[in-house]
Amino acid sequence: MIRLRNLLFLVSMLLTVGQGRAHELDPGYLDIREGADGVYTVFWRKPDVRGLPMDIDAQLPQSCTPNFAPEVVSDGAGWQSHWTAVCRPRLQGQALKILGLDRQSTDVLVRFQPLTGALSTTRLTATRTRLLIPEAQSKLQVGWTFAVLGFEHILEGWDHLLFVFALVLLIRSKAQLLGAITAFTVAHSITLALAALGHVSIPGPPVEAIIALSVVFLAIEILKHDETQSRLSERAPWIVAFAFGLLHGLGFAGALQEIGLPDADIALTLLTFNLGVEAGQLAFVGVTLVVGAVLKLLLESVNVVSYQLVNRANLVAGYAIGSIATFWLSERIYGF
Questions:
Q1: pLDDT at residue 247 tops 80
Q2: What are the residue boundaries of the structural domains of the chain, listed by start?
Q3: Is the pLDDT of residue 18 over 60?
Q4: In whole angstroms, what is the distance from residue 12 CA to residue 166 CA?
Q5: How far are the Cα atoms of 190, 192, 201, 261, 274 from residue 187, in angstroms, in the given order?
Q6: 3-class state of residue 69 by DSSP
Q7: What pLDDT digit, counting tens, does each position of 107-150 carry?
Q8: Quick check: 39 pLDDT over 90?
Q9: Can you tell me the distance from the alpha carbon of 290 to that of 182, in angstroms, rounded to the nearest whole number?
Q10: Going along the chain, which residue ranges are E strands?
């Protein structure tokens, strides 16, 4: 099978090297818990941008005192603050805002726990910076919020996408590719659930480093491809995909652990977050295959395709993938 689809993606991959971190734009998080007599406990966390807090602020309604966060402090991965606000009347039915979010490329999750009733989780974006705090939120709304979060998390996770792209390059059979993607899905679903529920706890930095190492491994396998003798990763790619998928699931769980799971809808949020991840992953694979097929047809129409060109393109892609992943690995190990 001709593998020219790597040329297009290679350009976009090279542009990501300067970003450093694969998840630089993690979502912001605002957690509000109602207590007695109109007293609310507030937790506000801003993403880190090159060592500084992102230029966004949470503003509670004017009826709250105070309605802005005190000074934020670094927690090593983001910037957070805690405070207590007195709001009269109650927050339900009032609006809060995330100032500056319209100038950013990330989103903010707002988690509101009333004194009585169900917890609600809402996603604010650059086009929706204001939230009218609901009296209650339906299960459909909760599920959709976490599905969108999962979809965006995979598409912003360049290390996860680069691993999947390397699988697409490595595996020559579409049936084997389907099996490998399925194995990857099953594996990271298992560890995602176990980690999010607190049954497995591994520090984030080593997990992120091993995820980068998994991409390095696949890059080496691409470069060592031999038409006369297939390697284990090519004969049984589902084994490699499943093994590394367990580690990638721990990385996915990091997003959920940062924002927390609503106690009343744990199963629903886990399911919909994972479905969002899978939808994003399948969309990426589908676009990659379609673009590759179109590019192949265009090159064949002008008689450009040759075995030498395909072989060189695969080598360039393998070295590019390996270089980017090695950079991430070194950076993450240095971050220990």
A1: yes
A2: 6-22+157-334, 28-137
A3: no
A4: 14
A5: 5, 9, 16, 21, 12
A6: coil
A7: 898 988 888 766 777 889 899 999 988 766 677 777 887 888 78
A8: yes
A9: 19
A10: 28-34, 39-49, 52-53, 57-59, 64-65, 73-74, 78-87, 95-99, 108-113, 120-124, 130-132
